[in-house]
Amino acid sequence: MPEDADQLLDSVFEEVKAEIARAHSKYGKFKSVHEAYAVILEETEELWETIRKQQGEKRTYEEAIQLAAATIALIADLLH
After folding, report:
1. One-character DSSP codes across 51-71
2. 37: closest CA among 78, 4, 79, 80?
3. Cα 71 vs. chain centroid, distance in angstroms?
C-alpha cells in the first residue's frame, strides 16, 4: 500500500477511535451484544438513508465512521 494510502487509513482510524471515545462518554459501553447489534443496525440504516437520499459525501462519510466505530467497539468488547 502506498505511503499516502497508509496515512489516509491512519487518519480514518483516528476518526473512528475519536468516535468510539465520544460515544462511550455519551452512552457508555455496550451493555450486551444485543445492544451492540441494535446500534450497528441503526447506524447501517442511517448510512443507507444518506446514500439513498444522496446527502453528499461528507454526511455519508460521517455515517460510515459511526458505523465503523460501533462495529469496532463491539469487536473490542468481545476481546476484553
Report:
1. HHTT--HHHHHHHHHHHHHHH
2. 78
3. 6
Q: What percent of the chain has pLDDT over 70?
A: 96
CA–CA dist 59, 39 (Å, integer): 18
How many domains, the chain?
A: 1
Indicate yes or no: pTM above 0.90.
Answer: yes
Give, as one character, the DSSP assignment of residue 31: S
Confidence category of residue 1, pLDDT binned at 50, 70, 90: low
Report the C-alpha gap between 21 and 30 in whole angstroms: 13
The amino acid at residue 22 is R
| Domain encompassing residue 68 | 3-79
- For residue 28, the model assigns a pLDDT of 94
